[in-house]
Amino acid sequence: LMMESNLRHALTASEFELHYQPLVSLANGEIVGVEALIRWRHPDLGVIMPDRFISVAEDTGMINPIGDWVLFEACRQAQAWIDEGLALQTMAVNVAPVQFRQAGFVEMVAGALGTTGLAAERLELELTERTVMHDAEFTLGTLSALNRMGVSLSLDDFGTGYSSLAYLKRFPVGKLKIDRSFIMDLERDADDRAIASTIVSMGRNLRLTVLAEGVETAEQLTLLRSMGCGMVQGYYFSRPVDALRMTELLRSQP
Ligand code: G
Ligand code: G
Ligand code: MN
Ligand code: NA
After folding, report:
1. Does the pLDDT of residue 65 top 90, yes or no?
2. Contact of 159 with 199, CB cutoff 8 Å
3. What residue spans define the domains of the chain?
């Protein structure tokens, strides 16, 4: 099933769709952005989650056309919400390592913004440490070009990979997303609290926004607030939901 030809067919048959999860400001509890997360609605098998096909897509190169589609669709949806008058500061899109390195990636991002009319400042690309640390000089060039366009950059799954603090200083990254493995046991694990609190402090000192992923409980939220964490995301607020449900969530905002 998870083969290149199936993924290609899924793309032409419009079987991919984006779900969205709120990014919430801890200052006022408002949804200030959303993260786009791909799903494959298979006609026979139902909804297939990305863990089951993204790595195959990466290995076969299908991640490039799929990733292009994700970017255009996310930008189109963000602009549709903005046109409706809904307050959406950020549309965050995951970018796979292969996709980030494909020739013409920066131009493709510019094309998605130009075609959909979305302001570059509204788009945030999520990159993992694995993506940015591999060939740091190439990364710096691409990140700088995106940054000059006005696109924001965030480091996803932060803390799980190999990150040089020197590059954190050099790369034009605006946000750190603390990996949910550190948040999961926050109430019970003093080491996780130390790690989360250290990332929050470092982020503040480097003038970066810090977002905690995978927040599921009020206790985790209280701890993160006491650490001075700026943003949160997780099932406590909402699971990833389809565009229709996300529209309702945005409309119900004060
Ligand atoms: O909800 P969740 O199961 O959506 O996501 C699982 C994993 O798949 C996460 O690591 C997430 O970053 C990744 N993922 C989700 N959507 C996309 C996408 O559009 N592109 C890429 N490259 N990865 C994605
Ligand atoms: O790797 P990345 O951070 O892009 O992937 C986001 C993944 O985290 C998605 O699979 C999404 O469904 C999942 N996720 C989001 N919030 C929570 C949460 O509160 N708990 C758990 N267990 N997973 C979450
Ligand atoms: Mn992500
Ligand atoms: Na993450």
Report:
1. yes
2. yes
3. 4-251
Q: Which atom from ligand 1 is nearest to the alpha carbon of 19?
A: 4
Q: What is the pLDDT of residues 118-165, one digit of tens each?
A: 999 999 999 998 888 888 888 999 999 999 999 999 999 999 887 778
CB 207 within 8 A of CB 173: no
Quick check: helix, strand or coil at residue 47? strand
CATH homologous superfamily for the domain 4-251: EAL domain (3.20.20.450)
Contact 210, 199 (CB under 8 A): yes
pLDDT of residue 222 exceeding 90, the answer is yes
Mean pLDDT for the stretch of residues 22-27: 96
In this prediction, residue 170 carries a pLDDT of 87
Q: Residue 83: exposed, middle, or buried by beta-carbon count in 10 A (0-12, 13-18, 19+)?
A: exposed
Distance 63 CA to ligand 1 centre (A): 12
pLDDT in tens, 163-182: 778 888 889 999 999 999 99
Q: Which two tokens stand for residue 179?
A: 């990996």
CB 96, CB 58: distance < 8 Å:
yes
Please indicate whether residue 160, judged by its CB atom, sits closer than 6 Å to ligand 2. no
- With a 6 Å cutoff on the Cβ, whether 18 touches ligand 1 is no
